[in-house]
Amino acid sequence: MNKIIIEARVNELAGREENPNVPFTPEEIIRDSKECYDAGASVFHFHGRTPTGEPEHDPAFYLETIAGIREQSPILINPTLGYVAHGGDAKERFEAVEQMMQNPATEPHFAPMDVGSVNVDWWDPENNTYTSTDLVYENSTETLLYFADRTKHHGLKQYLVSWNISFTRQIEAFMKMGVITEPAIVLLCMTDGTSLSGHPGTPEGLDAHTTFIPKDRNLLWTAMNYKGNLLLLTEKVIKEGGHISIGLGDYPYLELGGTPRNADVIAKVVEQARSLGRDVATVEETREILGMKAA
Ligand code: ZN
């Protein structure tokens, strides 16, 4: 079977109430990148955070963190652009990437493209109410075409994200237009708990996503569950030839015992993939699978 690409999603906007091992500072994120690489992850996704866990949008944070990650291992770097909090026009939103690309030591390998728009308010399932009512993750077609153009210009791999089937349809349209480079990879977003923005993190939620992956296109998929336990679905993903994006940014994974680190979650997926007959892709193999330049 095809080798599996494992991506570590180490912090997102997660707090430390349930698991104190969520990394915030550049030092903590850099340490996690090495541990996750050693455990078998070939892609690393992180968000800038302040020492108290607030979102950190200063490009300097990203430059320092990426340079540190690159010194520790060859893991492929997939930073966020902090879209929701930024707002602003396309050029402003892509500015951090433009800065990263000015120095080989701070270059990421991927730039994200969430190919559509969605309400991302927080749901309180205990009290059946929203705790926010005005959060829209807005990505106009014009903005996305700008991102596609700039990622191509820089030779970055486009990291596509689909929150629901309408996103996947726009990805297919972009493929027909030639603005997305194949082979492409799409992160199929499932959400549970306090987020209702993606498909449910159930077999049916995943099936609804994968059913609409265009079969005549070279589009690989990886699965995540924001605010839900992806380990309930990883066996299905592994058996269906998908890839896995997982970490403490999405869910504390206390089911693994104690308070696991990101690398413990990665190790669990590696063990499961191997036990089901799928080898884990190294960084070089991941580059090859995704049609990226060799290091
Ligand atoms: Zn993220």
**Total number of β-strand segments?**
13
CATH architecture: Alpha-Beta Barrel
* Regions with little confidence, pLDDT below 50 for 5+ residues: none
The proportion of residues forming helix, as a percent range, comes to 25-40%
Map the helices and strands:
Elements: E1 6-9, H1 26-39, E2 43-46, H2 59-72, E3 76-79, H3 83-86, H4 90-93, H5 95-100, E4 110-114, E5 118-119, E6 123-124, E7 129-130, E8 136-137, H6 141-154, E9 157-162, H7 165-177, E10 184-191, E11 199-200, H8 203-211, E12 219-226, H9 234-239, E13 243-246, H10 262-275, H11 283-289
Bound molecules: zinc ion (ZN).
Walk me through the structure.
With 295 residues, this protein is α/β, with parallel strands linked by helices. It has a single domain, classed as Aldolase class I (TIM Barrel). Helices cover 36% and strands 18% of the residues. It has 11 helices and 13 strands. It has helices spanning 26-39, 59-72, 83-86, 90-93, 95-100, 141-154, 165-177, 203-211, 234-239, 262-275, 283-289, and strands spanning 6-9, 43-46, 76-79, 110-114, 118-119, 123-124, 129-130, 136-137, 157-162, 184-191, 199-200, 219-226, 243-246. Strands 1, 2, 3, 4, 9, 10, 11, 12 and 13 form a 9-stranded parallel beta sheet that branches. Strand 12, helix 9 and strand 13 form a beta-alpha-beta unit. Helix 1 runs parallel beside helix 2 and helix 1 packs parallel to helix 10 (262-275). The radius of gyration is 18 Å and the shape is globular. Bound molecules: zinc ion.
